[in-house]
Amino acid sequence: MVLLRAFVLVIVGAGVAFGYRALWSGPIVWTLEENPPLEPGTTPDEPATTPVEQPGTDQPRGTEPATDAVPATVDEQPPAEDTPQEKPVPGDLTYADLGLEVGVDGAKLIYEMALDGQASIVDARVADDYRQGHIPMAFNLTPSAFRFAIPREVQDMSMDLPVLIYCAGGDCEDSHIVGQKLREIGFKRLHILVDGFPGWKEAGGDVVTGDQP
Amino acid sequence: MREARPIACGWDLAFARLVLAGIFTFAGVMKLADPHLFATAIKKFEIIQPLADVLGVHAEPILEWLAFIIPGVEIVCGVALVIGLWGRAAALVLFTMLAAFAAGMISVIARGMKIECGCFGEFFGAEVGWSSVVRNLVFMAVAAPVMVRGSGMLSLDALVSNRRATSHTRTDDLAT
User: Fold this and answer.
1) Does the interface ipTM go beyond 0.90?
2) 3-state secondary structure chain A
């Protein structure tokens, strides 16, 4: 009798679930859509210099010792015969070239923009990993931070500026989930660092530790 | 004539039942507040995807339905426990779910994964670890007596059972 009643409770629970899903209109979106195309004249401000290769000349702002920066992995291309705008020349990466998913080069560009207050950075990893090391100026926002309300840190971010989001790289999808949440709030220019924090660190990017951006 | 015994009428059972009800109704409502988040939390356990691969189906529809069914069952069992109806059955369902969640967490820990639980939000710590396994074991310990002995005081089960006991007593009195 107990087992039968347990079965009935499960069926009723599933029925409640079906009913709620029918009423809940929002679909579960598993992939983050590409950013809308940049409108002419609305390219976010870029720094005066466009750093792509930094062979160990910059001092890291964090507590970790400086490491030899690995040169950016931009494929060598023959000089463009057409106008420069059509074929980007290595070392001449611009914001307009960046799509939803970016490599370390694109992340470094956005990082430089963030230094000028023209971009935001979000670390979607768990708090322990964030504390052990993160990109300077990155806010720690995990997917569950968006459960009940818009996090305070997001309210301080400008929706018009690009946002670089990263997590642990590889199969980690937290950066996409946080990106989805930001997209729902109204952020348009989102960029996911494909290789995550490990890729950034391996490329010699700046790292800080602690709870604060 | 055999007397119908009333259900075990312990205040301890009532307390355990209400604690369990509160926990799971709360957890179920929180999960339903953001099914997307819960679906991705389930996905990160990396248990459904391999199963789906073996079966040759897509994991996303399974994840989506689990993201609704699990909290639905939690809420229904929570409500059943609040009113003390079918307490043993409700506690059995929740005990089974807790055991399954604990097994999933141990699997995550064994694989060295660092993921958020998605169980109760950030109120009890987000990351899956031994503390979350212990928490589940504690909840199982709370559910066990209710599953075995029933709803206790202040419950519909006790009310129904006591009325049956009273009815049998009257029948016996009339017979003698």
Assistant:
1) no
2) CHHHHHHHHHHHHHHHHHHHHHHCCCCCCCCCCCCCCCCCCCCCCCCCCCCCCCCCCCCCCCCCCCCCCCCCCCCCCCCCCCCCCCCCCCCCCCHHHCCCEECHHHHHHHHHHHHCCCCEEEECCCHHHHHHCECCCEEECCHHHHCCCCCHHHHCCCCCCCEEEECCCCCCCHHHHHHHHHHHHCCCCEEEECCHHHHHHHCCCCCECCCCC
Residue A132: count of CB within 10 angstroms of its CB: 12
Interface with chain A: mutation pick from B25, B36, B92, highest number of A CBs within 10 Å: B36
Cα–Cα dist A169/A61, whole Å: 23
Q: Which has the higher per-residue pLDDT, B107 or B153?
A: B107
- Judge whether B107 is closer than 8 Å to chain A, CB to CB: no
Contact between chains at B116 and A146 (C-beta distance less than 8 A): no
Which residues of A are less than 8 Å from B59 in CB distance? none
Determine how many CB atoms are found less than 10 A away from the CB of residue A63.
Answer: 10
Contact pairs from chain A to chain B, CB under 8 Å: 105
d(CA B170, CA A213): 75
- For chain A, say whether B72 makes contact (Cβ under 8 Å): yes
Asked which of A26-40, A191-205, B1-15 is least confident by mean pLDDT, the reply is B1-15
Across A53-63, average pLDDT? 40
Selection from A165, A158, A174, A213 nearest residue A193 by Cα: A165
How close B74 gets to chain A, by Cα (Å)?
Answer: 7
**pTM reported for the whole predicted model:** 0.69
* Contact criterion met (CB < 8 Å) for B126 and A129: no
pLDDT tens digit sequence for B13-39: 888 888 899 999 988 888 887 788 888
Q: Please tell me the distance from the alpha carbon of residue A63 to that of residue B116, in angstroms, as a whole number.
A: 28
CA gap A37, A26 in Å, rounded: 25
Reported as a pLDDT band with limits 50, 70 and 90, residue A106 is very high
